[in-house]
Please model this.
Amino acid sequence: MHAKPHLPEKPCLHCARPFAWRKKWARCWEEVRFCSERCKREHKSAQPSAHPSGHTNSRARSAA
Model:
Protein backbone atom coordinates (compact mmCIF):
# COMPACT_ATOMS: atom_id res chain seq x y z
CA MET A 1 0.00 0.00 0.00
CA HIS A 2 1.31 3.43 -0.93
CA ALA A 3 1.61 5.94 1.91
CA LYS A 4 0.44 8.98 -0.09
CA PRO A 5 -2.29 7.87 -2.52
CA HIS A 6 -4.23 11.15 -2.72
CA LEU A 7 -1.69 13.70 -3.95
CA PRO A 8 -2.87 16.07 -6.69
CA GLU A 9 -1.73 15.32 -10.24
CA LYS A 10 -1.61 17.18 -13.53
CA PRO A 11 -0.31 16.39 -17.03
CA CYS A 12 3.07 17.58 -18.27
CA LEU A 13 2.77 20.12 -21.12
CA HIS A 14 5.59 18.47 -23.07
CA CYS A 15 5.19 14.69 -22.66
CA ALA A 16 1.54 14.65 -21.42
CA ARG A 17 2.35 12.15 -18.66
CA PRO A 18 0.70 12.79 -15.30
CA PHE A 19 2.96 13.89 -12.48
CA ALA A 20 2.18 14.21 -8.79
CA TRP A 21 2.58 17.07 -6.35
CA ARG A 22 5.93 17.32 -4.55
CA LYS A 23 6.72 19.09 -1.32
CA LYS A 24 9.24 21.37 -3.09
CA TRP A 25 6.35 22.62 -5.26
CA ALA A 26 4.09 23.43 -2.28
CA ARG A 27 4.30 27.22 -2.79
CA CYS A 28 4.24 27.22 -6.60
CA TRP A 29 2.11 24.19 -7.63
CA GLU A 30 -0.10 26.39 -9.83
CA GLU A 31 2.94 27.56 -11.86
CA VAL A 32 4.49 24.09 -12.30
CA ARG A 33 3.87 22.96 -15.89
CA PHE A 34 6.50 20.28 -16.60
CA CYS A 35 7.30 16.99 -14.89
CA SER A 36 11.07 17.42 -15.19
CA GLU A 37 13.86 19.79 -16.17
CA ARG A 38 14.36 17.70 -19.31
CA CYS A 39 10.75 18.26 -20.46
CA LYS A 40 11.07 21.98 -19.69
CA ARG A 41 14.30 22.22 -21.73
CA GLU A 42 12.93 20.20 -24.67
CA HIS A 43 9.69 22.20 -24.73
CA LYS A 44 11.66 25.46 -24.93
CA SER A 45 13.83 24.16 -27.78
CA ALA A 46 10.77 22.90 -29.69
CA GLN A 47 9.12 26.34 -29.62
CA PRO A 48 10.15 28.79 -32.36
CA SER A 49 12.26 31.44 -30.69
CA ALA A 50 10.88 34.74 -31.91
CA HIS A 51 12.08 38.04 -30.51
CA PRO A 52 9.35 39.70 -28.40
CA SER A 53 9.35 42.78 -30.62
CA GLY A 54 8.73 40.66 -33.72
CA HIS A 55 12.12 41.36 -35.32
CA THR A 56 14.20 38.56 -36.75
CA ASN A 57 17.93 38.12 -36.38
CA SER A 58 19.58 40.82 -38.53
CA ARG A 59 22.87 38.91 -38.75
CA ALA A 60 21.19 36.01 -40.52
CA ARG A 61 19.76 38.30 -43.16
CA SER A 62 23.00 40.20 -43.80
CA ALA A 63 25.03 36.98 -44.20
CA ALA A 64 22.90 35.82 -47.15
Q: What stands out?
A: The mean pLDDT is 82. The chain has two helices and two strands.
